[in-house]
Each structure stands twice: as C-alpha cells, then as structure tokens.
Amino acid sequence: MDKTVLKGSRWILPKNPENLCRERNEPDRLREALQLNEPLATAYYLKEDLRQIWIHPCKADAARFLEGWIERATGSGIAPLARVLKTLAAYRSGLLAWYDHTISSGPHGRHQQQDQDHETPSLRLPRHGLLQAQ
After folding, report:
1. H-helix or E-strand containing 125?
2. Buried/exposed 15-50: b ≥16 CB within 10 Å, e otherwise
C-alpha cells in the first residue's frame, strides 16, 4: 500500500464530492486512495450513501433507509464502524426528528425550506466519528 497517497487523503475523505478542490487535485487523490484501500473505500461509500437519508419524502422512509444502512455497515465487517453505528443509534431519534421539525436559520428560513428538495444537507457526526461529511 502506498502510504504517501493515503497520508494526503485525511482531509479529503470527509469532504462531500462536490466540495473537492480541482486545483489541488483532490478528486484524483481521493480516487487513488480509495483504489489502494478496500476497507477505506467501503467506509467512504457508506458515508456517501448515508447522506441520502435527507432525500426521503417522509420519516418512515428515512427510518427504513437508516435501518438498511446500519445493516449494510454492520455487514461490512469494518470494525471502526462499530463506533459510528453506536453514535447513530444514540442520535437516531434526533436525526429522524428532522422530518418532524425541520430547522431553518434566519429570516430566509422559509425560502430554505422550499429549496430543501433541491439540496442535500450535510451529515455531521461528533468529532470522534469515523465518517464525517462537511
């Protein structure tokens, strides 16, 4: 395994793909790191898949999606994901409460709510979490 490629990927992995900087060659560096390390690639794609929780039309669909994601993550056999799964279990009701009480900020919150279908909010787990999106 080429550790020089993985060394530079620490700050790239948590980013959402649309936020990768082309000037710093981040998309290529990410692709290279994922090709070198299969467990890392699996964890990264699970992180990206988890972002899809926000696109479901209702809380019940999101809950089913989350349950399926947890099963896939558990079945991956990647031990460090156990910590993430524990964190998700602790925050599950809070994550799903977003469907009951969407949060807006400032006077433009109503417009943000209307645009919600067009944007995917980012998922931010606690700092110690393995899979963090920005």
Report:
1. none
2. beeeebeeeeebeebbeebbeebeebebbbebbeeb
User: How many distinct structural domains can be found in the chain?
Assistant: 1
| Domain membership of residue 87 as a residue range | 37-118
Q: What is the pTM of this model?
A: 0.69
Position 77: which residue type?
Answer: G
Cα–Cα distance for residue pair 16/122, rounded to 1 Å: 8
Express each pLDDT in 68-126 by its tens digit. 999 999 999 999 888 899 999 899 999 999 898 876 554 444 444 444 444 555 555 54
Give 5-53 pLDDT, tens digit per residue. 666 677 888 898 999 999 998 999 999 999 988 999 999 999 999 999 9
Q: Closest Cα to residue 51, out of 9, 80, 19, 8?
A: 19
Contact 84, 123 (CB under 8 A): no
Angle (nearest 5°) at CA 69 between 56 and 44: 105
Selection from 32, 100, 30, 29 nearest residue 62 by Cα: 100
Please check whether residue 17 lies inside any domain of the structure. Answer: no
